[in-house]
Structure formats: C-alpha cells, structure tokens
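About this split. The held-out portion is used to measure sequence recovery: a designer receives only the structure tokens and must propose an amino acid at every position. Recovery is the fraction of positions where the proposal matches the reference. Here is one held-out target exactly as it appears in the evaluation file.
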C-alpha cells in the first residue's frame, strides 16, 4: 500500500514540475515609434520576432507612421525578456512608446523599467533587424540607462491613443534633432508576473489530485 501511495505522490510532484516548466505569460503589446520599431521576446539563447510597424513614413491608416499604434499578442516564457529595436530616418526627432499588459499587470515605457544598447548598425525603414542580428548584439550588449524621455502628448507626436498617458517616449540618445546616432537601438525589459498554467498542465495536476483522493478513499474503506 505504501508503495502505491509513494507512486501517486511522485506522479503528483511530476505533474507540478511540468506545470512549472510549461508556464506561459500572456502579453498584449501596444506600440508605436518615430520612425520604426520591431518587437521580439526571448533571451541570449533564442529570440522570437513578433512584428513591426509600417516600413514607410506614412501611417496605415494614420497620418504619420507613429500616429496610430499597433497591437500584438504573444506568450512570454518564464525568464524571457521583451526586446524592442528602434531606428529612425535621421530627421527632426526619434523615439518609441508602448504599453504592455503582461500576465494582467501593466508595464509602460519609462526610464525605470527599460534599458538600452546602441548597436551602431544602420537600417533603412524597409529593413528589419534579423533574429540573428539581435542575438549577436545580445551576446555583446552592455546595457545602459534610457538617455531621454518625453511624456505621451509631447511635441511633435501629440497624444497617442490606446497607450496610457503615463507611458513615456524613450530613446537611447538625444530625441531631437534627428541624427540616427547609435541606431539601431535595442531596448529590453524583464518582468516577473504571475504565470498562467497551460490547459494541458492543469489537466495533469487535476488527474494527479483525483488519483490521490481516490487512493485515500480506498484506504479509508479498508
């Protein structure tokens, strides 16, 4: 009897281990940039590309490419970072701004929660930093503090709808006049929200608990 109980307990522990290893954190990201951004998540071992904004100076359907943000949804694995690459056309100003809902918690762009690395790799608007390029830079990166911030509503951008008024435009060098200095610039943040177990792992846990309860019932009847 004791051996069966041990087996059930081991199965339950195994189920809990699977839950811990398979936790996924849902993320909704609302972002825009003057001029261009690309969104990724991962770490120094691997990076996943999520998406980017329009490749030209005009918006879709906004007036400018920064006038209306894009919204992205993805799952963040435990220990992963959110990465954003930003680059400009070297004219007037440059920065990016965003609001992230990570596992139900709000994360905004600001100088406290984000840091930056200047890659000094030039890009045109139509180009996107490859996953290989991002990984190479992650392995070499020395992360610095955000150089400059502006409030949502500041000129020349105005207030960006669908992004919190508490979020800030951020950049790793002077925002204006435009210079393309240090671009593309790579930003990162790491958060530790409460993860959401995947359905399969919840089923494993339920089966383990049910088996343990059934065994205890049989033991009580004996």
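Reference sequence for scoring:
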């Amino acid at each position: 009897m004791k051996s069966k109980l041990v087996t059930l307990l081991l199965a339950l522990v195994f189920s809990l281990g699977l839950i811990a290893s398979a936790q996924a954190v849902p993320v909704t990201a609302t972002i825009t940039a003057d001029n261009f951004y690309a969104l990724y998540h991962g770490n120094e071992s691997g990076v996943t590309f999520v998406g980017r904004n329009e490749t030209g100076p005009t918006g879709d359907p906004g007036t400018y490419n920064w006038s209306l943000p894009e919204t992205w949804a993805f799952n963040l694995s435990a220990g992963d970072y959110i990465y954003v690459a930003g680059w400009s056309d070297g004219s007037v100003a440059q920065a990016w701004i965003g609001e992230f809902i990570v596992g139900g918690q709000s994360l905004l762009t600001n100088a406290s929660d984000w840091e930056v690395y200047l890659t000094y790799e030039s890009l045109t608007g139509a180009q996107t930093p490859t996953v290989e390029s991002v990984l190479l830079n992650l392995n070499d990166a020395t992360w610095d503090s955000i150089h400059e911030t502006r409030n949502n509503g500041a000129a020349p951008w105005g207030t960006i709808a669908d992004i919190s008024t508490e979020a800030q435009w951020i950049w790793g060098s002077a925002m204006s006049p435009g210079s393309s200095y240090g671009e593309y610039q790579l930003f990162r943040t790491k958060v530790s929200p409460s993860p959401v177990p995947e359905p399969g792992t919840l089923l494993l846990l339920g089966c383990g608990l049910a088996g343990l309860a059934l065994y205890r019932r049989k033991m009580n009847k004996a």
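Annotator remark: The longest strand covers residues 24-34.
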